[in-house]
Amino acid sequence: MLADENEASLPVEGQVVSEAELSHAFHDLGGGQRLQVVYSKVLKAPVVAVVPLTREGFDRLEAIHRLLASLHGRTVPPDSRITPQQKARLRRMLQAHDGQRSGASRRDIAAVIFRMSPIRRDEWQSASQRYAVMALLRDAQAMIEGGYRRLLRHRHRG
User: Fold this and answer.
1) Any idea where the T6SS Transcription factor RovC-like DNA binding domain is (predicted)?
2) Number of domains in the chain
3) Domain edge (last residue) among 80, 112, 130
């Protein structure tokens, strides 16, 4: 391990550090992501991040990269768990759900989300926006019932 002048007091390999000098805690990264870190009571700073050796470990490594950037005053890379397209769809899902809870009809919801001009009832029955609103409402309900947890994890290949 190489050390610079800022890391001079970090323990070196083989050095014994007493449990009294360390504490374990979870560092909140926002967006539902946390890292288990070991804090040095002497340095008053995190010195170690714990990474599970499971598939979720890859997510933690990315989180550690963002944490290090933040701790060292560098630009924090964006969270890559959700693409811009997914964010846009999630926003539409929330808009659709909020509209429905406020008593808006599906046609009214479509008019707001898709910036539609008013259409006749018979046109609405076969409009693609009608089916899009139905899908947004269905998916919003699934998120509310616990599907939001998927947003906190990267997609992993089987």
Assistant:
1) 50-153
2) 2
3) 80
One domain, residues 88 and 134: yes
Radius of gyration of the chain (CA): 24
- In sequence order, the β-bridge partners of residue 48 are 38
Could you list the residue range(s) of the whole structural domain that residue 140 is in?
A: 84-150
Q: Computed from CA positions of residues 63, 65, 67, 70, in that sequence, does the dihedral angle turn out positive or negative? A: negative
C-alpha–C-alpha distance, residues 72 and 26, integer Å: 19
Same domain, residue pair 74 and 33: yes
Using CA atoms, how far residue 26 sits from 20, 30, 32, 53, 92, in Å, is 18, 12, 12, 17, 33
Quote the pLDDT of residue 28.
73
